[in-house]
Amino acid sequence: MRIACDDRRRTSLRLGERRTRPRGFSLIELLIGMSIMAVALLSIATMFSTGYSDVTAGGKTTMATAAARQLLEDIRTLPFDRIAELNGLNTNTAASLIAADAAQDPGRTMVRNIARKWRYALAGDLTGWGGGPDAAWSFLTSGTPFGVRGQVAVASPTATLRQVTVTVFLPGRLAGEELALRLDTVISRL
């Protein structure tokens, strides 16, 4: 006895012939596929943490560049004869900050204010002036210390030129690693 079927799904009950397999996945195929997909998704997930740290590092580099540029702009506001007084300023060394704070003449006060402003902007506190954070400078850090340090070097190649180098040191990715960002400018007396 034969039963009429659609030609596409014809099954035979004769001995020795195989039945056509129903379409779909077996449990083993499904497990292998899921394993491959899990490995791929985990590798993609690790890229998110790496990407986040790259974006954070890029943001700090951008902020350090902006800070160094602004420091150069502040130095350009000083009288030409006072620019050399910032030579050797290191925002993490209290001795250089106290030296900037020592004199009381008006020109020296401008130098002291620049040194004080950049100590607070880069490191987040005013250690070296006998106090903690000062509300007058809080607009620079938006509440979160930047946690970097800066140095200023001033060279005088001629009597009418000053070469100013501002270096900002950023923490690197690895513990103890430090990256340096350096900007130079030449200021001339007219």
Detailed description of the structure:
The protein is of the alpha+beta class and 190 residues long. It has one domain (29-188). The protein contains three helices and three strands. Strands 1-2-3 form a three-stranded antiparallel β-sheet, with helices on one face. A hairpin with a 2-residue loop joins strand 1 and strand 2. It is rod-shaped and about 110 Å long. The N and C termini lie far apart (114 Å). The model is unreliable at 126-143 (pLDDT under 50).
Shape summary: rod-shaped
Written as H for each helix and E for each strand, in order along the chain, the element string is HHHEEE
Question: What's the β-strand tally?
Answer: 3
Low-confidence stretches: 126-143
The major beta sheet can be summarized as: 3 strands, antiparallel
Q: What is the CA–CA distance across the termini? A: 114 Å
The figure for the number of domains is 1
Strand content: 15-25%
Based on CA atoms alone, the radius of gyration comes out at 34 Å
In helices, the fraction of residues equals: 40-55%
Indicate the mean pLDDT: 75
Class from helix and strand fractions: alpha+beta
In what order do the strands lie side by side in the largest sheet?
1-2-3
